[in-house]
Amino acid sequence: MRINPGIAAAVALVLVVAAGAAGYLLAPLVQERLGTEQLAMGEVYDGELTSQAPRNFNDGSHYHRIAVDLPRDQLAQFELDAAFPGDLALYSPQEKLVASTMAEGQTGLGNNRSPGRLSYRPRTAGTYLLVVSSGGNGEDGPFNIESRLRDLSSNDTVQPGSTVEGWLDGETSTHTLVIEESGLYTVDMTSPEFDTILELSGQGMSLTDDDGGQNRNSRIQTMLEPGEYELGARSYNHEGSGFYSLSVAQEEMPEDRELQNGGALELGTSVNGLLQGNQVEYTVQVPERALYTFDLSSETFDTVLEVEGNNRLLSNDDYGPGTNSRLEALLEAGEFTVRVSSFSSGGNGMFTLQANGEPLGDDFALHNDGRVAPSDQIKGMLPPSESNGYTLDIDNAGSYTIDLRSTAFDAYLELSGEGVSLADDDGGTGLNSRLRAQLEPGEYRLQIRDAFRSAGGLYDLEIR
């Protein structure tokens, strides 16, 4: 059912900006009720902001007010669909601003907001005032507001295959998770209004996740035994409040994904493991001096990969696709330890680790300095915290592209000489560097280093 606004009585509403906040301070609401239209929860309100609508003298925005009766302790949700960039604000019966979709820092309410969506759980029943405004830009046009109520009174227990909804008031909300069958489970916490933190404890385990889900949402994936566990739902640094949901699903283990948490890692093969807070260690035997590549991937946590042996320690965070890890190194024969961990403390979930070796050809050579020219493609080794330099000879004027690629460090490329001074960090794909320049004949200097002057490793340099 939709409500079409009638002709409201012309009653002035003074909008004032409080010091340090962009919220509205309302004239006594008792005087406003006669000129304010009503929205029944569960219905859709159709309206329009026009040039004749009241104006906020602070930022020039037009606004429209709607009275709405809200019961105690039920979650009220409003979603604005407008032909203009708009904001929603909700005022209590005591004329206090209690929720807003305005940008953080404008209202002083914390960060329980997302564009066009507003949620609030009243602690007292009464008639509240919902205000839609044109967001400070003076635009107008038609709009509609969808409204709904959710009952959150019986959401203390969650089971696999179910979803519960809750409201966060800054502190940690707790739920009981009941597991009846051993297996791999995924617990997701999502919120459109704040950066979520999810905690799972019980049966001798304690796991925490921040952004293991999509965007700022949380995900924990782990093996669980039958019993009761406690789920803690909170916001990052306890700074946010608002609506959230928790869901639990039991995962089927694919037949080709037998778990191996530690032990021997054979070259040319991959293993599947489960990270549960602490790092997982493997050992790999390197039979000869060669190029070796280690790939670590996960759908549930930001991977960190370490390879240690022969008095060398190599580490990588995001040089693989997305937040996955890759290490490429020239290793001597020996035994190496491979460690799997998460970038964030308490990261968890399934992962895949793979190691491959590539024998060195008869013509293999590392070129860490010297002279280079267009059409050259060379491979070099950058010592940690240092830089490599080359002399670039240009015989003909023209447009040139220089690419520096590495899976071991964040490539940084500098070019100088003949009146040219250029630098690039991530102009190529991922963390690689690319310089494009119009160069005259002459002699130039190329400098190669890690962007943070800390890491090192193999790289490819191409000039064309």
**Helix percentage:** under 10%
- Classified by CATH, the class of the largest domain is Mainly Beta
Low-pLDDT residue spans: 3-34, 103-114
General form: flat
CATH topology group of the largest domain: Jelly Rolls
Q: Which CATH-level-2 architecture of the largest domain?
A: Sandwich
Tell me the total number of β-strands: 39
User: Which structural class fits the helix and strand makeup?
Assistant: mainly beta
Mean pLDDT: 84
Task: Work out the count of structural domains.
Answer: 4
Q: Could you give the order of strands across the largest sheet?
A: 1-5-12-7-10
The separation of the N and C termini measures 66 Å
Gyration radius, rounded: 30 Å
Please summarize the sheet with the most strands: 5 strands, mixed
Quaternary structure annotation:
single chain
Instruction: Work out the strand percent.
Output: over 45%
Q: Number of helix segments? A: 1
3D structure, described in words:
- The chain has 464 residues and is an all-beta fold.
- The protein has four domains: 2-151, Jelly Rolls (Sandwich); 157-251, Jelly Rolls (Sandwich); 263-358, Jelly Rolls, CATH 2.60.120.380; 370-463, Sandwich (Jelly Rolls).
- It is 1% helix and 54% strand.
- The protein contains one helix and 39 strands.
- It has one helix spanning 29-32; strands at residues 2-3, 16-17, 24-25, 37-39, 44-49, 63-70, 74-82, 87-91, 97-100, 117-120, 126-133, 141-151, 157-158, 163-168, 173-179, 183-190, 196-202, 205-209, 218-224, 227-235, 242-251, 263-264, 269-276, 280-286, 290-297, 303-309, 312-316, 325-331, 334-342, 348-358, 370-372, 377-382, 387-394, 398-405, 411-417, 420-424, 433-439, 442-450, 457-463.
- The strands form nine sheets. The chain has a five-stranded mixed sheet, with no helix packed on it. A five-stranded mixed sheet has the order 4-6-11-8-9, with no helix packed on it.
- Strand 26 (303-309) and strand 27 (312-316) form a beta hairpin.
- The longest helix has 4 residues, at 29-32.
- The model is unreliable at 3-34 and 103-114 (pLDDT under 50).
